[in-house]
């Protein structure tokens, strides 16, 4: 910014923006009342604070090519949420009510699969019963908004999924997540495991859940070759989750930028385990903004009219 000022015959400091050759003891700053006015005085579009990283934002501001960053009001709903059928604390109806109260147009329920026994993961029978309950509830108008039937399916150690395709194809979508084992695998082995899972032929939309498994200040992300996984995700039309749980914020904004550059679609999910957690979406929006994402790149800015829309 200072270099730009000098090139324009101005001098920029914490004291103001001055004509370069004005005497130090008697100079008057150009009248500026906001950051927006300062950027404009230097011939730049306003750069939102989230984007000020010394990357390419100055060039983009010069060319008026800065992205229009996503805002929370643009999100229409989210698809990774739990109920008390697995390890959430509120019922299906309570979650639906809370989502409607937040102004969501739809909510997706993705309880754990059977391998996540510590999280009370659903058996095939319980999952099928939940799918029916959701279908019936949508048909009868029991819910205050549309509910999508999903499942957070464990990616097993060999890259297979915790339920057969025949079962998963009855859902509206699946969130594919690594829960166990999380450690003790090489980067190659973990990459293979995830690529295989994301390549599973399914008739429903696949989402890669909390992609690195990190827990901030508690657990490091596992190592995975993002370039390879993103290639597979592109071929398979897999959506990449930005998990908005505050201790996860997974993916990291730097890697999200790579996902965006690879042409992938992002979905921001709260991974809510209670109705109060639904509002965690805001933390996800903050990270999405840091990654320079626009509403066009975040799939849950779409008003999905029906489950069919997802496929
Ligand atoms: Zn999970
Ligand atoms: Zn979850």
Your description of this structure?
- The protein has 2 domains: 2-62, Beta Polymerase, domain 3 (2-Layer Sandwich); 72-310, Metal-dependent hydrolases (TIM Barrel, Alpha-Beta Barrel), CATH 3.20.20.140.
- The chain has 11 helices and 9 strands.
- It has helices at 2-7, 35-41, 57-62, 92-101, 124-140, 165-168, 187-198, 226-236, 253-261, 281-290, 307-310, and strands spanning 10-13, 16-19, 77-78, 106-112, 146-154, 173-177, 205-208, 239-243, 266-269.
- The protein has a 7-stranded parallel β-sheet with strand order 3-4-5-6-7-8-9.
- Helix 7 (187-198) packs parallel to helix 8.
- The model has no long low-confidence stretch (mean pLDDT 95).
- Bound molecules: zinc ion (ZN) (2 copies).
- Residues 152, 177, 179, 209-210 line the site of one zinc ion (ZN).
Mean of all residue-level pLDDT scores: 95
- Report the CATH topology name of the largest domain: TIM Barrel
User: What is the CATH H-level superfamily of the largest domain?
Assistant: Metal-dependent hydrolases
Strand order of the largest sheet: 3-4-5-6-7-8-9
Work out the strand percent. 5-15%
Q: Catalogue the unreliable spans.
A: none
Distance between the termini: 47 Å
